[in-house]
Amino acid sequence: MKGFILNAALGHLETEYAELPMDSLLDALDAPAGGLYSPICDYADNTLHDLMETASLLLGVSSRKPSKVIGVHIFSELMAVNSYWLEQSENTFELLKNHDNFLNGITKGSFPGFVAPSFSCMEISPDMLEVSYQSTFLLADIAEGMIDAMILYNKESISVEAVKTASPVRCSRQFILRRYERKPGLTD
Length: 188
What we know:
With 188 residues, the protein is α+β, with helices and mostly antiparallel strands. The chain contains seven helices and four strands.
């Protein structure tokens, strides 16, 4: 599964950022001939982090931007693969609360040994949700991009605040989501 995600991320970076020197990126990552994905490779948990950091250095941008773009892309891929996941929820809060039940069960069955990302949610109020994201592989900025895509998909007005912690881990983060009223005059 890690190789599949790496390959998808690399392909989307190539499509989204035409100015990205792919040969330099693959050389810096010491990738095997033909790209990042190999069915016989065992990828370290930091491989995706290294890909995003190296791409951002070559692009001259913060790694947060391309990571969030990859998150939006992964959400669109998940929509295509498992529409049932989306059909079980009427809004973003429900989608996040149901993520682990509907999506991770399928992932575990299809990719044994892969530790799927987890979204643990606590509803503070009907308009506020605390989300604790954890993964050994998929970066928190990518998860934030996925959350942004969920909000757009559901056509909701929700702010996302990444909570700063004393000792941040690049693949774990806490988010506070708040629903808000759209200002008159703004359209979809």
